[in-house]
Amino acid sequence: MIIWMKKNYQFSIDPKTKFPSFVSTLFNWRINGITIPYETNYQKYIDSITVKDLNLKMINHLIKAITKFVIRDLLKEYLKYNKPEIPERSYILRVLDYFITGHPFTETYTFFYCFLWSIFIILSFSLVWDNACILFGIILRPLLSNSLKENEKLQESKSLKMIIKEWLILSLFYTKPLMGNPFLSIDPRDFWSNQWHQIYSETFHELGYFPVRTYFKHNKTLGRVLGICSVYLISGLFHDYTLIVAFNHFSADYTTFFLFHGLLLILWEVIEGRILGKRKDIKD
What we know:
Elements: H1 2-13, H2 22-25, H3 42-47, H4 51-81, H5 91-101, H6 108-144, H7 150-155, H8 160-173, H9 188-195, H10 201-215, H11 220-247, H12 253-272
Helix pairs in contact: 1-10, 4-6, 6-8, 10-11, 11-12
């Protein structure tokens, strides 16, 4: 059904329009990920990178990777042996109880533990990016060397080597980190759309948001609300599926969690007036 919805949305725009495959989007999986201004000549940015710049960049990533690895492992040991007692009642229901009865939905230590766990997750994603950049640098180093023969330099612009070189430079020097600064988010939209990792964002939008919004073209507000819900629903189902595969344990906690945050985002958007179209900076 999801594939059919995606194809229907594709046809509603232009029968000739084709969405890229998931594999191909892995090489461009973050919207606005490049820090170079739009419609700018990339070549001057690429040509300005030297071996010295690469060395400094790799040293920077290496220091960050070692520091994050140490902190992450210390956190992992603490989290492993200091687990709080988790209530059997779902946290969503406990949040509702809080609004109804005023009873706290979590203990102070549990909140602190979750805070440390979120830092652990952020460090893990960030460490993956640093390690990837170090690997990119190792591959890029010989491509930046001056040992190329003159005739190779003349043909470089037409070679696969040049394409790889440009991609590596753009990834290393002009691409935003995999994980931003979630704790500095200014609102829920900024958290989920900018600061948190965007690996699956484009896929979730293609499968959920755009098709649902298209079906409700007659009511844009309803289309946006249901579109947002569909994105968080797909995200929750995806996380629950990984839980089943990894631990052979079925739980709808992730789906409930993401739907709950989707509703919070919608509430925030309504309060700010974005969904209702009262702001000029509406972005899908």
